[in-house]
Amino acid sequence: MTDLSRVRSVPKSAGVAPSVSLHGLVAKYGLRVAVRDVSIECQAGAVTAIIGPSGCGKSTLLRCVNRLHESVPGATAAGSVRIGGSEIYARHVDPILLRRRVGMVFQQPTPFPTLSIFDNVAAGLRASGLREDLALQDIVERALTRAGLWTEVKDQLLRSAHCLSGGQQQRLCIARALAVDPTVLLLDEPTASLDPLGSQRVEELVYELRGSVTIIVVTHNMQQAARVSDTTAFMLDGELVEHAPTRTLFTTPADQRTEAYVTGRFG
User: Fold this and answer.
1) What is the pLDDT of residues 149-195, one digit of tens each?
2) For the residues of 11-68, what is the DSSP string, one character each?
């Protein structure tokens, strides 16, 4: 088990995906409470989907798992978030180093506009101090392969990332996150801006990564949650209403509010 409180560099993953445990998490923007006393266990190597209407706190909860929430002026978080048993809000944990172990991909593809495809993937590695060209080449190829993009871009690695389609750009961002060998991957509406083909490829990628990486995905698309996740959590007004195996939550939810949402009676 990696002790995140003692990480001073970016060691290679031991190949074991950790569990992610939230206990009594409260997240605020100033005085406004966005996440209210949420406790949830995300299984190691599994895909956990978080669903709920807009503004219910899904994305805020996700951003608390890599401490990106606290980068917003006036934003605060309290409670416990443990990754592999280690408290990420411990005083001596460096949030920047933490984010190299907990990758995040956003709704809109965010390739670095002035960098090539290769340099986009290598950016995090270089920031970590890796300068050896052969090592960079091997890791970039591996990351692009894991993201299902290598065969499409291997002959144009020096071209701008903006030459890629939206779906390819999103997979490039996933490759960039995977290059530093994270153990947890956070996906915030990763297919919201993609066409059906791009969405399908990202979903296939999520399915392929399960087991090697613990994945938490926020989505408005309930069909997508049903396709890719092992468990699903439903949030409403900042609260966790229900968390259950995906099939159970969608077929026999325990809470009437969950049933109303998944059957389309509100949302």
Assistant:
1) 999 999 999 999 999 999 999 999 999 999 988 999 999 999 988 88
2) PPP-S-PPPEEEEEEEEEETTEEEEEEEEEEEPTT-EEEEE-STTSSHHHHHHHTTT-
Residue 13: is its pLDDT beyond 70? no
Beta bridge partners of 80: 23
Q: Give the span between the Cα atoms of 232 and 222, in whole angstroms.
A: 10
**Domain assignment of residue 1, yes or no:** no
For residue 250, tell me if it sits in a domain: yes
**pLDDT of 218-227, one tens digit each?**
999 999 999 9
Residue range 46-60, pLDDT digits in tens: 999 999 999 999 999
For residue 251, give every residue at least 6 positions away whose Cβ sits within 8 Å of its Cβ, in sequence order, or none: none
DSSP state of 12: P
Neighbours of 241 (CB within 10 A): 19
Query: In one letter, which amino acid is 244?
Result: A
In 56-183, the DSSP E strands lie at 75-83, 86-87, 102-105
User: What token pair was written down for 200?
Assistant: 């399908």
pLDDT at 237 over 80: yes
Number of domains in the chain: 1
CATH number for position 223? 3.40.50.300
Whether 106 is in a domain gets the answer yes
Contact, 60 vs 78, CB < 8 A? no
Number of separate helices (H) and strands (E) present in the chain: 10, 10
Task: Tell me how far apart the alpha carbons of residues 61 and 67 are, in angstroms, rounded to a whole number.
Answer: 10
Residues 6+ apart with CB under 8 A from 25: 35, 37, 38, 39, 61, 64, 77, 78, 79, 80, 81
